[in-house]
Amino acid sequence: MKKELNKNYSEVMEFILLGFRTSPDVQILLFSLFLLIYMVIVVGNISMLVVIKINSRLHTPMYFFLRNLSYLDLCYSSVIAPKTLATFLSKDKRISYNGCATQFFFFALFVGTEGFLLAVMAYGRFSAICSPFLYAVRMSQQACVRLCSIASYICGCINSMIQTGFTFSLRFCGENRLDHFFCDVPALIKISCVDTLVNELVLFILSALIIITTTTVILVSYTCILSTVLKIPSAHGRSRTFSTCSSHITVVSLFYGTVFFMYAQPGAISSPEKNKIIAVFYTLIIPMLNPLIYSLRNREVKNSVKRIFLRKKSFH
What we know:
The chain has helices spanning 24-54, 61-89, 97-130, 135-138, 141-167, 185-191, 197-230, 235-263, 272-296, 299-315; strands spanning 14-17, 94-96, 177-178. By secondary structure, it is mainly α. It has one domain (14-300): Up-down Bundle (Rhopdopsin 7-helix transmembrane proteins). Strands 2-1-3 form a 3-stranded mixed β-sheet. The longest helix is centred in the middle third of the chain and has 34 residues, at 97-130. The radius of gyration is 22 Å and the shape is globular. 36% of the residues are buried.
C-alpha cells in the first residue's frame, strides 16, 4: 500500500521521461536506430495506403481493413516516436501533464482500435472462406464501414477514455520522473503517491477483457476456417486457401503476444526495464513489420507494387 496523500503535497505539472538511461554515445546510437525504424514505418505504411488507394483491384473488404491497419500503425507509432527521438538528443526530457495525458489518450486509442480491427479482419477471412455465397452481403461497403467504425474505432475510443480517465485521476505528489520513454500506464501508476490497487485492477481487467473478447472472435473464426480448409480435396487448394490467412495470423501473434505480456499480467507494473523492451517492440517494431509481412507474403500487393514501378519506368 502506498502512503496516503498528505495536506502538503505539491501537484505535478510536468513529467520527466527518463527513457533509456545509457551513456551519451549509446543515446546517439539508439537515436539513429529509432530514426531508421521510424522512417521504415512511415515509408512502408504510406506505401501500403497509396498502393491500395490507386489500384482498383485492391478495392475489396480485405484491403479496406488492411488500409485501416496501415493507418493505425502509422498513427500510434507517430504518437510515440517523435518525442522519443527528441529526448535522445536533448537534455530537456520534460513533457507537460496535459501533453502526457494527450499522448497516452491517442496511443491507447490507436492501439486499442488495432486490437479490435484484427478481430474484424479475422471475421472477414471467415466470411470469405466459410460463407463465400454470403460474403458480398456480410462484407458490403456499408458493412465494412460499420465494422470498422463501430466495432473498432468506437470500442477503441471507449477503452482509451476509460484508461485515460482512471490513470490521470491519480495524484502525483512531487515525484515526476517516469521510468519510460513515453507516457504509459505502468510507469504512471508506479510514481503515483496514492493507493493504485483500483487502477491496477482496471488495467488488468480491461486489458484481459479486450484480449479475451477479440481473441475469441479470432480463434472461433480460424477454427471454422481450418475446418472448411480441411474439407478441400486437393492439397494445392488447401494450401492456396490457407495462405490468404498466413499474414493475418502472423500479425495477430506478434500484436497480442506483446500486449498480453505488457498489460494483461498481474505483475506487469513491476519491471520497468522489461516493459521498455516490450514497448519498443509493439510501438515501433510491429508497425514496421506489418507492411513488410503483408507485402512480402501477399501476391496481389507485390504485383501492384511491380505494376507501379513498371509504369514509372515507362514514363521515363
